[in-house]
Structure to design on (586 residues):
């Protein structure tokens, strides 16, 4: 199953990744291989296997008691801020398309 | 000009988000911030969206969602899960929001609203749980450059989304639905549900169609609504706008519009010609939730009495009017205050209940409104109000005095018996003081006395009022009247 150029560009745009023409050719090949692999998985007979949303057998893992714990120190929180503005992170405005 | 007979019907569905009242966040143990928390002071690597962290579900948030679902007559499926909703925005730290896609905690419920004296049943499609985003503030520098400030405190707070069926037919119905929903959320203790504070938000989906048409018109989603009144105004405006567009031969496009309170109009934000591409997939970091019947039953057993049921019980058990019962049960804390007070006053419960209701819906409500205080935060407690009513009932103080005493209780939180004793407010049964005051008033009001004597019956009301003032309301008006008539002949 091969992905079209437009499909790769669409996925790249959703992920906010800029791709060169070479990248697009390379990724359409690689992403198609991944899809092919899922196509192969599809051949497995799963008639008697109930569908599941999760691969682990775990269920109902909770934090009980709703007890707050101390948060991170503010200096640590803001230590890696590209731009710090008082107690805030400062970022570029992103307008919705 | 002829009026063509096409009439339009409004169709509204509401998406409501409500922050849950938990002590800690949805997927980490950070404390829920208060209104006074400084920016970025209640965050950790999980809600900051750092790589390599692992979310863990706050069980309390799941319980509050299920309890809300039960209060909204929903079905609670045996299995639920979380999914990732992927999109990029500066207030979304991880690049995805943990939400619920196809297996929400609650579905297929309903909420009854009262509209013009009739009960209308509004369908609830689903109630699901997700995490709130950070808060961004848009700023502009002096040279006109725009930027945003991000406060991550809100990120990761448990947020419940309640989606209604498109069953609402007017702005009035939408307002009634929001009011009722807010009341239910507060009753079950799920949320503060305050739209002005942003812990309850709503996004109406509005469309119109020719009356009688069964398919839906293109819908417009309204955003940026910060109060019940905005919701009402925005829907009214939007219905008018769509009607005008269609009547002038135009077409409604499916889009998102933002409400601008300053100009009282909705303005286009983005077109929704294409479906959002969120690429939902099951959250691999969170195991599925198996919701056992026993757990649901246990949550149901802890659910408080709901407003409609309580209102009916108040009418039947205490013999209250429909109005009194409705106003008393508007909030759970007021209804609780009422019942606590009735339980404490001595004497027959029936007549007492009526006077407790009068106080709560009258003077008390007026003072609370004036100060913008909620009843549970008032310094007047049920025991104090019961004591005051007992003082009136035993004849120790007059009704007028009781109002003054209550004013003092409301201001200082002191107990009524103490205030009465200290300020010498006991009712004047006899006479010497009343007689003195009557004599003084007659002497100082020659005109009113002359008027009365020349046959103006109303003049005596003025004189009674003066005596009441002289005695600071401690005399009984009947006795004053009797004294005055005797003196004036």
């Amino acid at each position: 199953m091969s992905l079209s150029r437009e499909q790769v560009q669409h996925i790249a745009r959703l992920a906010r990744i800029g791709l060169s023409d070479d990248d697009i050719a390379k990724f359409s090949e690689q992403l198609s291989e991944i899809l092919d692999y899922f196509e192969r998985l599809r051949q497995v007979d799963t008639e008697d296997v109930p569908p599941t949303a999760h691969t682990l057998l775990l269920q109902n893992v909770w934090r009980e008691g709703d007890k707050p714990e101390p948060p991170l120190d503010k200096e640590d929180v803001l230590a890696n801020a590209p731009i710090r503005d008082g107690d805030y992170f400062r970022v570029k405005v992103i307008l919705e398309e | 000009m002829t009026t063509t007979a096409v009439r339009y019907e409004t169709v509204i569905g509401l998406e409501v988000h409500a922050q849950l009242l938990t002590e800690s966040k949805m997927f980490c143990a950070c404390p829920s911030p208060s209104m006074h928390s400084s920016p970025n002071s209640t965050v950790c690597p999980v809600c900051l969206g750092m790589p390599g962290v692992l979310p863990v579900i706050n069980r309390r948030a799941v319980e509050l969602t299920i309890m809300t679902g039960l209060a909204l007559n929903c079905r609670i499926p045996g299995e639920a899960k979380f999914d990732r909703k992927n999109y990029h925005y500066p207030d979304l730290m991880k690049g995805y929001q943990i939400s619920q896609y196809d297996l929400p905690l609650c579905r297929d419920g309903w909420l009854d609203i009262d509209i013009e004296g009739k009960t209308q049943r509004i369908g609830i499609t689903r109630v699901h749980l997700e995490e709130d985003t950070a808060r961004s503030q848009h700023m502009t520098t002096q040279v006109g450059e725009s930027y945003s400030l991000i406060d991550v405190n809100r990120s990761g707070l448990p947020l419940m989304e309640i989606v209604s069926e498109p069953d609402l037919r007017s702005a009035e119905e939408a307002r009634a639905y929001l009011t009722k929903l807010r009341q239910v959320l507060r009753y079950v203790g799920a949320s503060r549900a305050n739209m002005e504070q942003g812990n309850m938000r709503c996004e109406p989906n509005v469309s119109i169609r020719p009356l009688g048409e069964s398919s839906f018109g293109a819908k417009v989603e309204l955003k940026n609504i910060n109060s019940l009144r905005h919701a009402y105004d925005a829907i009214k405006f939007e219905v008018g706008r769509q009607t005008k567009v269609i009547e002038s031969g135009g077409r409604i496009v499916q889009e998102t519009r933002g409400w601008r309170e300053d100009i009282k109009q909705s303005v286009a934000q983005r077109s929704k010609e294409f479906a959002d591409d969120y690429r939902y997939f099951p959250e691999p970091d969170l195991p599925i939730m198996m919701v056992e019947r026993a757990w649901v039953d246990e949550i149901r057993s802890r659910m408080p009495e709901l407003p409609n049921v309580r209102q009916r019980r108040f009418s039947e058990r205490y013999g209250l009017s429909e109005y009194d019962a409705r106003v008393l049960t508007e909030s759970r804390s007021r209804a609780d205050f009422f019942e606590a007070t009735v339980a404490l006053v001595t004497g027959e419960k029936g007549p007492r209940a009526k006077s407790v209701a009068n106080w709560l819906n009258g003077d008390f409500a007026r003072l609370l409104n004036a100060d913008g205080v909620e009843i549970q935060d008032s310094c007047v407690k049920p025991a104090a109000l019961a004591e005051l009513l007992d003082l009136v009932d035993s004849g120790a103080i007059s009704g007028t005095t009781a109002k003054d005493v209550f004013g003092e209780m409301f201001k200082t939180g002191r107990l009524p018996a103490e205030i009465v004793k200290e300020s010498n407010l006991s009712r004047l049964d006899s006479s010497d003081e009343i007689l003195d005051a009557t004599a003084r008033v007659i002497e100082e009001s020659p005109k009113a006395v002359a008027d009365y004597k020349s046959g103006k019956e109303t003049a005596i009301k003025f004189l009674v009022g003066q005596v009441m003032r002289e005695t600071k309301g401690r005399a009984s008006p009947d006795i004053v009247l009797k004294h005055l008539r005797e003196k004036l002949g």
Notes: Chain B touches chain A through 50 residues (CB under 8 Å). Chain B is about 40% helix and 20% strand. Residues 349-371 of chain B form the longest helix (23 residues).
